Amino acid sequence: MARTELRPVVKLRSTAGTGYTYVTRKNRRNDPDRLVLRKYDPLARRHVGFREER
């Protein structure tokens, strides 16, 4: 049970507006704010920021 509380599954949505998403886990203690990662968006064909969606 402790695993789901500390490292929840979060959905990362593209900021390019394509609707493409990634799914990952995050450590709530290290990253309490919304996560933003720069990843590849195949619909936009470039690297863009992916923001955590709640």
Automatic annotation (TrEMBL):
SUPFAM superfamilies per record: Zn-binding ribosomal proteins (SSF57829)
Gene Ontology cellular component terms for the protein in this record: cytosolic large ribosomal subunit
GO molecular function, one term: structural constituent of ribosome
Top-level taxon of origin: Bacteria
Keyword vocabulary terms for this entry: Ribonucleoprotein, Ribosomal protein
Keyword Cell division: no
Pfam families xref list: Ribosomal_L33 (PF00471)
GO biological process, one term: translation
Coiled-coil ranges from the UniProt annotation: none
HAMAP family per the UniProt record, alphabetical: Ribosomal_bL33 (MF_00294)
Family: Belongs to the bacterial ribosomal protein bL33 family.
Name assigned to this protein: Large ribosomal subunit protein bL33
Organism of this sequence: Jiangella asiatica
Gene name of the encoded protein: rpmG
